[in-house]
Amino acid sequence: LAWGLRGGVGFTADPTAFLMGLEGHYAFTREFRAGPLLQIAASDDKTIVAPTANLKFFVPIPDAPREVERFHPFLQLGLGFAYVERERRRRHDDDEVGFLMNAGFGFDYMVTDRFGMGSQMLFNVLPDETAGERFFFSWQVVTASVRF
């Protein structure tokens, strides 16, 4: 099961917005996967679209009991860009594109060999201020994934 897709919903903090995430990955080994991730965050006054290339490391749990075998925690790193559009009431709208780095963690619980549910959190850093943003935290509270 080398290929996989994941979609999720949640929120961001600073700015606070509704979050949707979509990603694909290829499993190079049992522990390492890589692929694109697209985060879209929208609120009344701000929109962030952040495509990144991400690498995931699934942490092995040695000698795990049968009940724990389906639980797959992971660490994640990514590089990409963020398009930030900020609506200003008194001035013109600001929109900019900037470099983005992220790091985070999460888990999958494999309901079957091909279908899983989970959650993931990312700390997104924009080294150069982009439309007033330098950082946002994103949490896909609920994710669903399929492997094929």
User: What coarse outline follows from CA principal-axis ratios?
Assistant: elongated
Termini separation (Å)?
5 Å
Mean pLDDT: 92
H/E element order: EEEEEEEE
Total beta-strand segments:
8
Helix content class: under 10%
Strand neighbour order, sheet with most strands: 1-2-3-4-5-6-7-8
Number of helices: 0
Strand content: over 45%
The largest sheet is: 8 strands, antiparallel, barrel
Radius of gyration equals 16 Å
Residue ranges: pLDDT <50 for 5 or more in a row? none
What structural category do the secondary elements indicate? mainly beta
In short:
With 148 residues, the protein is mainly beta. 0% of the residues lie in helices and 74% in strands.
Task: Jot down its keywords.
148 residues, mainly beta, 8-stranded antiparallel β-barrel, 0% helix, 74% strand, elongated
Please outline the helices and strands.
Elements: E1 3-13, E2 17-27, E3 32-42, E4 46-58, E5 71-86, E6 94-110, E7 115-130, E8 133-147
